[in-house]
Design brief:
Glyco_trans_4-like_N, Rossmann fold, transferase, seven-stranded parallel beta sheet, Glyco_trans_1, about 40% helix, alpha/beta, 2 domains, Glycosyltransferase family 1 protein, six-stranded parallel beta sheet, 13 helices, glycosyltransferase activity
C-alpha cells in the first residue's frame, strides 16, 4: 500500500510524533510511505530512512497567498505518487488537502479540536463545510469526539487514541547522563515539562509554579529561544530529538496548557511510569486514572499543592507511578494506534 502523510509543520510536536511512529510501523510492515511537510524541522531527522521525504517550500503555518502554490504542489505530488491513502494531519493541511485530494482517499486526523473550536474559531465554518470531503475524520480523544458531535461533525468520525513505542524497555545512553542524572544524584526532585514554547503552553505559569517550589528542579524541553529572567531552579534545555529519554531521570511530569488534544509528552510519561500533574483541558483527563492530578491554570496554589502532595507521599507516588505504566500498556501503545489506523486505511482502499 502507498501511504502519503501530509502535515503542516515539520517542527517537533505531538502530531509529528504520530507521523513518525505511523511511518516507521508502516514501513516495517512493508508499506510504501511518503511524508510531505514544511521544509525545515526536526521531524525530518527522525523519520525512518525508507520514508520518502517531500519538502513543501511554500508551506507555512500562517494562511496566505502562498497557499495557492501549496495546493498546486499537493496536486502534483498526488499525480506523481498515486497513493492509496492520503493521511492529513493538523487543521491547516486538513483544509488544503481536502480541497485538492479525492475524498475517497483521505483520512484526516484532528490533533486537538479545541485549536479550531476555541482558539481559531473563525475557521470552524470552513471545517464544517468540508466535513464530508474525506472518508474519515479521526479524533484523538473522547473529549474531541463529543465536541465534534456538538458542532454537527458526526457522520464519519472515528476515535483513535495516540500511541507510542515502548521506549522505557530500551536502555539508551543519552546526554541526559551528564545533565539530569547529576541533579538527581544530589537527591533533588526533578519536574519535567516537554512542550513547544508557545503562548498556549503556559511557560509563564510553569515559572510561577517553580518560583513557589525552590527546592525542586524544574526542567523545560522544547524551546527554541532562550528566555532571560527565569527562576534559578528552572532549566531550559532546548529542542531534543529524543526528549522522552529524559523522563528516565524525572520524578514527575508537568503539563500546563490552555489547549490540548491527547498530548504525546504525557503518553511518554505514562510509558516511563511517571506521575502526572496537568491542566484539565482537552483529552488530558483520559490519560489520568489514579496516576496523577488534574489542575486549573487559574489556581496556582492548587498546582503547587498537587505537586508537593505527590512528591511528599511515597506511597501515593509509587501507586501513581505503577498506575501510569498500566494505563500505557492497556491503551496507548503504538500497536493499538497502528492497527486502528490500518483498519481505516484498508477501508479506504476497498
Amino acid at each position: 500500500m502507498k501511504i502519503l502523510h501530509v502535515i503542516t509543520l515539520a517542527e517537533l510536536g505531538g502530531a509529528q510524533s504520530v507521523v513518525i511512529n505511523l511511518a516507521r510501523k508502516s514501513i516495517e510492515q512493508n508499506h510504501e510511505v511518503f511524508v510531505a511537510s514544511s521544509s525545515h524541522g526536526e521531524m525530518w531527522n527522525l523519520l525512518h530512512k525508507d520514508a520518502v521525504q517531500i519538502k513543501l517550500k511554500n508551506l507555512k503555518h500562517s494562511i496566505g497567498i502562498d497557499d495557492i502554490l501549496v495546493v498546486k504542489e499537493l496536486v502534483d505530488i498526488y499525480k506523481k505518487i498515486k497513493p492509496d491513502v492520503v493521511h492529513l494531519h493538523s487543521s491547516k493541511i486538513g483544509i488544503l488537502g481536502r480541497l485538492c485530494f479525492p475524498k475517497s482517499k483521505i483520512v484526516y486526523t484532528i490533533h486537538g479540536f479545541d485549536s479550531i473550536r476555541l482558539r481559531y474559531r473563525k475557521f470552524l465554518p470552513l471545517e464544517k463545510a468540508l466535513k464530508r470531503k474525506c472518508r474519515a475524520i479521526v479524533s484523538v480523544s473522547q473529549y474531541d469526539t463529543v465536541n465534534l458531535l456538538n458542532e454537527k461533525i458526526k457522520d464519519n468520525v472515528y476515535l483513535v487514541r495516540n500511541g507510542i513505542e515502548d521506549f522505557a524497555v530500551r536502555d539508551l545512553e543519552t546526554e541526559s547522563e551528564n545533565i539530569l542524572s547529576k541533579i538527581k544524584n544530589t537527591g533533588k526532585k526533578i519536574i519535567l515539562s516537554i512542550s513547544r514554547l508557545a503562548p498556549p503552553k503556559r511557560f509563564d505559569l510553569f515559572c510561577k509554579v517553580a518560583d513557589k517550589l525552590p527546592d525542586y528542579q524544574f526542567v523545560w524541553i522544547g524551546n527554541k529561544e532562550k528566555i532571560s529572567e527565569i527562576p534559578e531552579n528552572v532549566m531550559m534545555m532546548g529542542e531534543k530529538e529524543n526528549a522522552h529519554e529524559y523522563y528516565k531521570y524525572a520524578d514527575l511530569a508537568l503539563l500546563l496548557s490552555d489547549y490540548e488534544g491527547l498530548p504525546m509528552s504525557l503518553i511518554e510519561a505514562l510509558c516511563y511510569s511517571k506521575p502526572i500533574v496537568a491542566s484539565n483541558v482537552g483529552g488530558i483527563s483520559e490519560l489520568l486514572d489514579e496516576n496523577g492530578l488534574l489542575v486549573s491554570n487559574e489556581n496556582l496554589p492548587e498546582i503547587v499543592n498537587s505537586i508537593t502532595f505527590i512528591l511528599a507521599n511515597q506511597n501515593i507516588y509509587e501507586k501513581f507511578a505503577e498506575n501510569s505504566r498500566q494505563i500505557f500498556e492497556s491503551k496507548f501503545t503504538i500497536g493499538k494506534m497502528y492497527n486502528k489506523y490500518m483498519d481505516l486505511y484498508m477501508y479506504n482502499t476497498k
